[in-house]
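Lecture 7 notes: from sequence to structure.
We start with the chain below.
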Amino acid sequence: MTDSPRAALSLAGVLATTGTLHLAVPRPYDALIPRGLPGSPRAWTYASGVAELACAAALAVPRTRRLGGYATAALMAAVFPANVKMARDWRTKPLPLRAGAYARLPLQAPLIAWALKAARSAR
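Predicted structure tokens for the same chain:
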């Protein structure tokens, strides 16, 4: 996360990749959707993919970068319950999978910080 345009574009690339995966290969993401949410898990998977793509697009354009950064930070906070669900659901999986699920939890903080940095440094 060196200079702000590069950092924002890198984050946009991450979001574009994950957003595309949510739409192209939704099944693994469906299992992460907390059961308490109304509607189908697939609808939430698609909605989160579209939200990630929208955030990526907003981050990629200098004029909308500030909004994109704040929207990305909010999105990263909003998907945190899915990461908690994954960690809970995967607590009996083999160690490498379990470690990956647990590693996602603290990863949200630097993603949110990255998004906020992009927002605050936008011109």
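Points to note: The radius of gyration is 15 Å. The longest helix spans residues 95-121.
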